[in-house]
Structure formats: C-alpha cells, structure tokens
Specification:
This protein is mainly alpha-helical. It has a single domain (2-130), classed as Cytochrome c-like domain (Cytochrome Bc1 Complex, Chain D, domain 2), CATH 1.10.760. The protein has six helices and two strands, in the order H-H-H-H-H-E-E-H. Strands 1-2 form a two-stranded antiparallel ribbon. A hairpin with a 5-residue loop joins strand 1 (89-90) and strand 2. The longest helix is centred in the first third of the chain and has 21 residues, at 2-22. It binds heme C (HEC). Residues 49-50, 52-54, 58-62, 73, 76, 80-81, 84-85, 89, 91, 93, 95-98, 100-102, 111, 114-115, 118 line the site of heme C (HEC). Residues 49-50, 52-54, 58-62, 73, 76, 80-81, 84-85, 89, 91, 93, 95-98, 100-102, 111, 114-115, 118 line the site of heme C.
C-alpha cells in the first residue's frame, strides 16, 4: 500500500514535469512551477554541483527519488530549503549540506533552480508555505 502510493506520487511528479513543459502558462498553483528553460538549467546545475552527493546519498545526502528522505524536508517549505541550500545546513545527524553545494561561484538564483529541479524530480511538488492538501474529500 505504502509502496503503491509512493509509486503514484513519483508518477505524479513526472507528470508534473510533462505538464509544465506542455503548458507552463497554466502553472499557477501555490508553488511556482519553473518553466521548461528553468528546469533544463536546474538539471544542468544539479548534474554539475549536486548530483555527486544527492544522486546516490553520499555523506547522507537525501536522494530526490526516495520520497521518505524528502517528505519532512518538503514540509519545511520552499523558503527554508532555498536558504539551507544557499547558506549550508547541518542536519540533526550532523550530516552537512555545504553552502551552494560547495561551489561559491553559483548565484542564489542558480542554487534555487537546482533546488526546484530536485524537488520536481522528487516525490512531491513543493508546497511552499501551506500544508499539504488533506484528502478528506475522498472519504
Ligand atoms: C558534499 C555533498 C553535497 C553536495 C555537493 C550537495 N549537497 Fe545538498 N545536502 C547534502 C547533505 C549531506 C544533506 C542533508 C543534511 C541533513 O539534513 O542532514 C543535504 C541537504 C540538502 C537539502 C535539504 C536541506 C534541508 O533543510 O532539509 C537541499 C535542498 C539540498 N541539499 C540542495 C542541494 C543543492 C541544490 C545542491 C547543489 C547546488 C547540493 N545540495 C549539493 C550534501 C550535499
């Protein structure tokens, strides 16, 4: 059941990317979905600066395609995740996210694009400052 719902979430995330590339003008949810070009840029930045650790969990870096590793992080909200990626962050287990992934040459905007890419390839779209919708309507 859990595995199944995770698969559904991952599927939703990939659909989100497909949808955002088909109709970026309609992406007006609470979370601003990056347009095509921003996703492409984010992906390049991710591959160059973030994937070394986050791709396979080096130094306990959370892996985007592992929903369980991101759920509580997404709950912090977009602003906090951006800040932690830009300024660096030490987690409760003393694993360290280096400021700007260790590349001082990256601008804030570039780091944000990479975070957006991580989040959109991950289990959920990042719902910045709001609670995740509850599914009470389905019951
Ligand atoms: C040297 C390894 C390393 C690199 C390179 C790296 N990260 Fe991280 N990152 C980590 C680790 C480890 C954590 C988990 C810290 C913790 O919560 O214990 C983390 C956590 C994060 C988080 C979650 C922060 C939170 O508050 O939960 C974000 C967002 C993030 N990284 C984004 C990025 C981005 C964007 C890049 C590339 C620009 C990047 N990281 C590059 C190791 C890395």
């Amino acid at each position: 059941m859990l595995i199944r719902s995770r698969a559904v979430l991952a599927f939703n995330a990939s659909m989100l990317i497909v949808l955002s590339s088909l109709a970026p003008a309609h992406a007006s949810q609470s979370y601003q979905v990056p347009d095509d070009q921003q996703l492409v840029q984010g992906r390049e930045l991710w591959l160059e600066n973030c994937e070394t650790c986050h791709g396979c969990g080096i130094a306990d870096a959370p892996i985007p395609m592992q929903p369980g590793e991101w759920r509580f992080r997404l709950a912090k909200g977009k602003t906090v995740l951006y800040r932690h990626a830009i300024e660096g962050f030490i987690g409760p287990d003393y694993s360290m996210m280096p400021a700007r992934g260790g590349n001082d040459a990256l601008t804030d905007e570039q780091v944000k694009l990479a975070v957006d890419y991580i989040v959109l390839t991950g289990p959920n779209k990042l719902d910045s400052n709001e609670e995740v919708n509850n599914d009470s309507t389905t019951n």
